[in-house]
């Protein structure tokens, strides 16, 4: 996927426009895990939804394979294929799953829409396979989402998103509302699935320590703009943008003596350079200066 | 290592206790039976000290706090034990008596700031309300004091935001307002129930710094509840690890982070991504915390514990004292138990980030 100068504005009234995504360009390579970091309100989720085709971008182009999917007509033409290949996992699994459907119905829905299996028995076998893949017993297939815990619900959403073998999965803060130990289980699950199925994975999180563990490359967003983009270790060992440094300093470290003396770097708008441009300051390391 | 019954030592023994809990058990009466949410917990909180209670969801952290404030639903009851706040035994206090204590002796900050504030009333008015309910002041003086509080908790442009409803605010700003309300009548003990869980990392760091500075200024004692050991490292003096309604390990922050003894504490620490090398699997604690309808006979953690001994399934482990400040309830510390070493990746402390 290739994103070029993407802009997503929300027009509130004549005097006020929210620039949720403002001139962002980056590429997603096939089979990589791309981490997107930034504080709340920095436009990460808007970017995810625009990539998914839920919003029509104000300006700029998104290319998937060779189709320009930011164009309405091209999107409509290939709608089925695109929707099959790009899937999303939301943060709040309670809101993402229909409370009136059983787990089996939830996972079956995309399979029915895309006519994957004609026979019911085949579909049921597939659902049981999927449940097993995400670490759930098939006894869960008759449960309703309210009967499940947060971690189990998130597993169901993961099962639903991989049911069509998509090429790209966007995960919008999938573990933010989970306990640390459950979070570790879900992260492991993502890692296993990604290695097995080799899908491209866009992982959105506000916690850089998770991204360091999981992702190949990291992009840092602030106020709708991409501030820095580089390989994971490069971001951690050599952060160039002050906002990235501030984000890194906010990561809680489980070490009380270090933590008590640590200085938290604050970042505010005054440090933003006006008319900054996006440039490659080192190899594969882009920064907005 | 001597075999002691449940005795917890304070950081400094001469420190005054503002809160003491002795063998507290809290249960809920439900149709299915009795749910033992808190089981035989004893702890003490010194003046100006921060005690962090850490554990997974459903292990009784919040119930413990709410039972001290008596904010539990009517089907909850204190089965045994004592709660001593200041110099009073408040275990048997009535709702009327508790009302005079809430806010003045202790107050609480909850997880979701959006749900704690009334969406229809300007935040300034909500703080005034909290001040007037405990102090006999005129509206004008209270308003002035409320504005001071808002400035104090670090809300930018407090004068303009005084008249705004909570929906104009971000999560971090709301949490600052909630904190202002909690501090309105100068409490001695602040209970913070996962105050940063709903916030992102940057905001979390700011709120933690704020809590710390407020505490130093006021000499406030704080009980900080969290499920994330990384967060409490910054703020806690002492840490109690809770599992299935019981405290399994308690000690100073240094004890818990540099010399953890209970397998559950190991598990919680290892779940932190920074303890694991990139590309390998994160350590996780398999399974889920048990339902406390019928708590298991032995150690409740045994079924999820890779280091479990046979006796763990049969008998509850007693508290073993490791040092003056540090105790843990696990059979691994028994002299008869096989020698157990801390998992390797915990020994190698993570490289400092940033």
Descriptive tags:
heterodimer, A: 289 residues, alpha/beta, Rossmann fold, eight-stranded mixed sheet, four-stranded antiparallel sheet, globular, B: 354 residues, 2 domains, 12 helices, 12 strands, 22% strand, disordered N terminus, disordered C terminus
Q: Strands, helices and their partners?
A:
The complex is a heterodimer of chains A (about 290) and B (about 350).
Chain A lengths: L1 E12 L2 E12 L5 E5 L6 H9 L6 E6 L2 E2 L3 H6 L1 H7 E4 L3 H4 L6 H11 L6 H14 L16 H13 L5 E5 L7 H18 L2 E5 L3 H7 L2 E6 L2 E7 H6 L4 H8 L6 H6 L16 E5 L2 E4 L1
Parallel strand pairs in A: 3-8, 3-9, 6-7, 7-8
Antiparallel strand pairs in A: 1-2, 1-4, 4-5, 9-10, 10-12, 11-12
Chain B lengths: L16 E14 L2 E14 L3 E5 L6 H9 L6 E10 L2 E2 L5 H7 L4 E4 L3 H4 L6 H10 L6 H14 L5 H4 L9 H12 L6 E5 L7 H18 L2 E6 L2 H4 L5 E6 L2 E7 H6 L4 H8 L49 E2 L5 E2 L15 H4 L7
Helix pairs in contact in B: 4-5, 4-7, 5-7
How would you portray this structure in words?
The complex is a heterodimer of chains A (289) and B (354). Chain A starts with a strand and ends with a strand. Helices cover 38% and strands 25% of the residues of chain A. Chain A has an eight-stranded mixed β-sheet, sandwiched between helices. A four-stranded antiparallel β-sheet of chain A has the order 2-1-4-5, covered by helices on one side. Chain A has twelve helices and twelve strands. Chain A has a single domain (2-288), classed as Rossmann fold (3-Layer(aba) Sandwich). Chain A is of the alpha/beta class. In chain B, 47% of the residues are buried. Chain B folds into two domains: 17-105 and 188-347, Rossmann fold, CATH 3.40.50.300; 115-186, no CATH class. Chain B starts with 16 loop residues before the first strand and ends in a 7-residue tail after the last helix. Chain B has 354 residues and is α/β, with parallel strands linked by helices. In chain B, the strands form two sheets. An eight-stranded mixed β-sheet of chain B has the order 6-7-8-3-9-10-12-11, with helices on both faces. Chain B has a four-stranded antiparallel β-sheet with strand order 2-1-4-5, covered by helices on one side.
């Amino acid at each position: 996927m290739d994103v070029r100068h993407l802009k997503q504005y929300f027009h509130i009234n004549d005097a006020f426009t929210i620039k949720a995504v403002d001139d962002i360009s980056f590429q997603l390579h096939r089979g990589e895990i791309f981490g997107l970091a930034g504080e709340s309100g920095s436009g990460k989720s808007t970017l995810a939804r625009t990539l998914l085709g839920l919003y029509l971008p104000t300006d700029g182009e998104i290319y998937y394979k060779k189709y320009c999917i930011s164009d309405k007509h091209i999107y409509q033409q290939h709608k089925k294929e695109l929707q099959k290949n790009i899937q999303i996992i939301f943060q709040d699994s309670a809101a993402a799953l229909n409370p009136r459907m059983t787990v089996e119905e939830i996972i079956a829905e995309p399979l029915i829409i895309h006519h994957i299996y004609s026979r019911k028995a085949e579909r049921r076998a597939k659902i049981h396979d999927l449940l097993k893949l995400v670490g759930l017993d098939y006894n869960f297939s008759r449960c309703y989402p309210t009967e499940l815990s947060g971690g189990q619900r998130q597993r169901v959403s993961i099962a639903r998103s991989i049911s069509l073998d998509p090429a790209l999965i966007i995960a919008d803060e999938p573990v933010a509302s989970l306990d640390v130990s459950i979070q570790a289980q879900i992260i492991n699950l993502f890692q296993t699935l990604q290695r097995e199925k080799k899908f491209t994975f866009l992982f959105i999180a506000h916690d850089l320590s998770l991204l360091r563990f999981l992702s190949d490359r990291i992009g840092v967003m602030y106020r709708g703009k991409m501030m820095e983009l580089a390989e994971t270790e490069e971001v951690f060992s050599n952060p160039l943008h002050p906002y990235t440094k501030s984000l890194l300093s906010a990561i809680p470290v489980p070490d009380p003596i270090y933590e008590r003396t640590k200085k938290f770097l604050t970042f505010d708008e005054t440090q933003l350079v006006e008319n900054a441009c996006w440039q490659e300051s080192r190899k594969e390391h882009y920064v907005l200066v | 290592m001597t075999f002691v019954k449940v005795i917890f030592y304070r950081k400094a023994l001469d420190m005054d206790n503002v809160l003491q809990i002795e063998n507290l058990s809290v249960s809920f009466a439900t149709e299915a039976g009795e749910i033992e949410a808190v089981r035989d917990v004893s702890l003490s909180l010194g003046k100006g000290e921060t005690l962090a209670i850490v554990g997974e969801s459903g292990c009784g952290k919040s119930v413990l706090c709410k039972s001290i404030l008596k904010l539990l639903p009517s089907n909850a009851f204190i089965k045994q034990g004592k709660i001593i706040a200041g110099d009073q035994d408040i275990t048997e206090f009535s709702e009327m008596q508790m009302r005079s204590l809430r806010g003045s002796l202790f107050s609480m900050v909850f997880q979701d700031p959006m749900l704690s504030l009334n969406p229809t009333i300007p935040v300034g008015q909500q703080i005034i309300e909290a001040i007037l309910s405990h102090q006999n002041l005129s509206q004008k003086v209270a308003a002035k004091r409320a504005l001071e509080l808002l400035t104090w908790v670090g809300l930018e442009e407090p004068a303009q935001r005084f008249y705004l409803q909570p929906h104009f605010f971000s999560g971090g700003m709301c949490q600052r307002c909630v904190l202002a309300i909690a501090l309105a009548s100068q409490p001695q003990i602040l209970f913070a129930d996962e105050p940063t869980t709903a916030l992102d990392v940057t905001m979390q760091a700011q709120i933690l710094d704020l809590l710390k500075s407020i505490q130093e200024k006021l000499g406030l004692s704080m009980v900080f509840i969290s499920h994330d050991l990384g967060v409490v490292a910054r703020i806690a003096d002492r840490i109690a690890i809770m599992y299935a309604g019981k405290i399994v390990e308690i000690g100073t922050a240094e004890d818990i982070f540099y010399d953890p003894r209970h397998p559950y504490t190991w598990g919680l620490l290892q779940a932190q991504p920074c303890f694991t090398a990139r590309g390998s699997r994160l350590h996780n604690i398999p399974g889920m915390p048990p339902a406390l309808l019928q708590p298991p006979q032995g150690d409740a953690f045994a079924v999820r514990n890779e280091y479990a001994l046979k006796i763990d399934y049969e008998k509850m482990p007693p508290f073993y004292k490791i040092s003056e400040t540090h105790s843990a309830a696990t059979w691994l510390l028994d002299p008869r138990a096989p020698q157990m070493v801390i998992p390797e990746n915990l020994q190698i402390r993570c490289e400092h980030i940033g």
